[in-house]
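Reopening this ticket.

The earlier resolution said the output was attached, but the attachment link was broken on my side. Pasting everything inline this time so it's all in one place.
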Amino acid sequence: MSEADYSRKHALECLRLAADSMQLAGDIQNPALQSHFVRMARVWWTAQFEDRMGILGWKAHTQTQSRNKQSPLARTRTSRQ
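Inline output:
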């Protein structure tokens, strides 16, 4: 398996774990656990992003960063209303 293939698979798995963590945060009523799962989702989201930066390079990162100041997970609410 090439390094690029491994990197893509790793990034995809991180996205899956982030999505699963957000699903768990939405499914439970305990605020402490919700906070934990949202925090873990951010960890996995960051891990896949950093992994992709290894492929895209720093120049692409700085261009994207200027356009997207905040990740989608940072805007997610943890409590149901």
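Reporter confirms the inline version is readable. The chain has one domain: 3-75. Residues 42 and 73 are 7 Å apart (CA to CA).
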